[in-house]
Fold each of these.
Amino acid sequence: MRKFFTFFFKYNTYLLFVIYCGIAFLFMRLQNEATLTKLRTNGLEFSSFINEKLMNLTWLFNLSNENDRLMRVNTELLTRLLHVETSAIDERNRTKILNDSTFNASGFIMARVVDRKFSDRDNMLLINAGWKNGIKKDMTVLVPEGLVGRVIAVSEHYAKVMPVINTDFKVSVVSDSSNCMGLLSWSGGKEFIAQVEHIPISSHLKLNERIVTSDFSTFSIRGIPVGKVVRIIPDKLFYTVDVWLAVDFSSLSQVLVAPLKIEPEKVQITSDSTLNEQFF
């Protein structure tokens, strides 16, 4: 091995000359043979392969950006579609109420139910009309089919409504045939059944009689449908009466708010303790 390195360092110039000549001779041979062409072809194919992969990579990036753009467009289109569909539904409900020949909606404020608290005892509704729209506390809320409830709180653009299907709600009612008067309330559970109290067993109440609001109510205008009698059970002094409510609260969307019932003289005379003592 030592002799080899000694020989290499001694004759390296000649060796390099021989190597250079060999390389030159090889290139001269390649220029006249198909090998160089093959090398060039392979080089072109490799270059094409690399370019294709780079283009695919670029296409993937562009595809991701395109997908993001299409998602934004689809989201915008979906938002518009939902807006158009909900507007169409609202307009149909409004038209249904306004075109109801059995009910005159003039003078009432129309609003939409925008929220609801679901409960087996304390349901609440929120409508999109407030004091800026003329809504006041204790106004009656209804639909052509019947009584919905009463306004209990008002803000600038919204109002909270206590519906008939709330255990704290009570309204004075009367039957339209036998003229039996009582107090309607809801005891919870089924949202389509309410009860009427204080109807004496001496009355002539009948099944399927229509129940409407009476003049005795402190907030509601009279004559608003409430429901119909579906069960009458006699007790010692009074009937237990079940009423099938006129309003389907599960599908309630558009409502009407009646002008405030203002009877200051009636309120004053019924709350005057001196007059009460004279009557009794």
Amino acid sequence: MTLGKPDSGYIEVDGDFLWHIQGNGKIVPADEKHLRKMRSKAGMVFQQFNIFPHMKVLQNVTVAQMHVLGLSKEEAEERALELLEMAGMADKIHSYPIQLSGGQQQRVAIARALAMRPKILLFDEVTSALDPELVGEVQRVFRDLAFKHSYTMLIVTHEMGFAQEVAYRVCFFDRGQILEQGPPEQIFTNPKEVRMREFLRAVIERK
């Protein structure tokens, strides 16, 4: 979050403006202190994993907790082990990223994001870089986050079946604009926009 500055408009996260603050009755650009506070509210998981290659799995999930949240090593490791267990990676805590499959690395990245206790989790096409047989293991973690732990997640994906299963609200983007949005039962069974219907038809035909 705050990796790219918007050209116009406002973004709110958990009741606060992201890029702006209110001062003297006006909405003005935020200072770095405000941006740091807002960054702490969001966890980001990238398409290409981006976990530290020189650190073992456990250290990948603990290092930011100690340096940013100020936790002791023992507190950070306790939290990390809980999250790695949830992600199905507890048996890999002493492995380096190069020793893991793409799906395993992505699950470590998810645990690392969760360790920072964010209000919202952002996922950028997190299964698109994986071999097809590895997609399911990452999607299982998503299902647990959505249905067992009720995390708020913003997921960018082309996996329409998965989106239909786990989403509460779906936004369909076309050329940088939200073309249609609504609950999945509406978007996937009775879309209003012609472009949305064409997209879904193309996805079904590819199968």
Amino acid sequence: MIEMEQVRAGYGKTEVLHGVDFKAKQGEITTIIGTNGSGKSTLLRTLLGFLPISAGNVKIDGISTENMSRAELARNIAYLPQGKNVPDISADRMVLHGRFPYLNYPRRYRESDFQIAREAMRQMGIEDLAGMQMSRLSGGMRQKVYLAMALAQEAPVIVMDEPTTYLDIGQQVKLAGIVRQLAKEGKTIVLVLHDILLALKISHRIAAVAEGKIFWSGTPEEMLEQNVAERLYGVAVGAVRTDRGMEYFYSIS
């Protein structure tokens, strides 16, 4: 579990987060939503330890991240960012970078690291990309490589910022299945999504950010009942129960 308690943070003297309380439980998918400029990215960067905290605390399984080294933090949180430069490296070497927090000096990969990286690529269905240069892969394939790198990190918490970027609808469905499976295996999953329908479909809990605060949090069912999407975006969302579960849609008048 990862949690923020009355966290204040920002950039220099500009405070962006104003006393944020946030919690993501083990074995669950918690999705952060909000309009552009609401503070989602700042919340994520603070959660990951990229930004200093002026007040409050961030904890992983009850331990303050202030008491963790960068390597310890990396062993506890794997991060899949939204915008990434394309390195001049092969896909399998990129995935191996997920093992870096576990290496001691001198920085040499062990056979177990190679095995874990290969298993992560197998889980993502990209074993055939092993020797290919990242620059030659499509955006969707690169996204799968980065996700495999996050899996190879073997952290209990996985944070993903817009993980469906560059993915077509078929790949999005597969990614949703992978994320759900990771949660079933006991991972704490934190997502930032603009796709509200996808957030409702796969999340256990959703947190809505506005003006540097979490103004609402709850289950997808509660989000519908309380018209949170309409309050946040001005767009109504409806749902219908089918034999495949709940299906969500935008209500267009």
Amino acid sequence: MTLTDASARGRHLLIVDDDDRIRELLKEYLARAGFRVTAASGGAPARKLIQSLSFDLAVLDVMMPGEDGFALTRWLREQRGPAGRTPVLMLTARSEPGDRIEGLKLGADDYLPKPFEPEELLLRIEAILRRAHDRPASAGGPLSLGRCQFEPDRGELTCDGDPVRLTEAEVALLRQLARTPHEPVDRLELARGSVDPSGRAVDVQVTRLRRKIEDDHKTPRYLQTVRGVGYMLAPD
């Protein structure tokens, strides 16, 4: 049974696209799949919705007049509390790898080029929501990472006692590494089920996490690269 079959009902999605036809088609299709769907025609109305409502995932078009999807994602990740961790799936006619990497750097969880099959969009939404809500069976206690601390059960990172914003993809990656501290995890294993099975998305997320955790992200102490294998979390 898929996530949509079992528990889509009640999951609230935000669709942001300036194309009226696409926006309404997506709203209708995802509503039929069992989701609650709210739609916005651009960045300004989307911001108002995000500030007043709670969403489980946002689907953002990149190419919009005024504030584009990149700028909206950047703003979203700057928000405090659950809003700042809302999973983001970006839709765009741009297919260049540089645009996709830019979206991931800003904190997007997935990136789907147009044109696309609605079923593929639905499957990607399901995959993101599974990652966002998965809880490891035995994650153990908090892990000390120098001035930072990561709590796998709650998916929370604090540094110097202050909460640090993480995307759901970053939380999922840290949890995977936290299951086997001081042991290397294969890069492709970390990438399995991610937006890019080649591992490039994992590399982007590791770079972002190092900037949040490490005193010097260029010489990481806690989130280490294991040559020829992948990455390893090395808590105190």
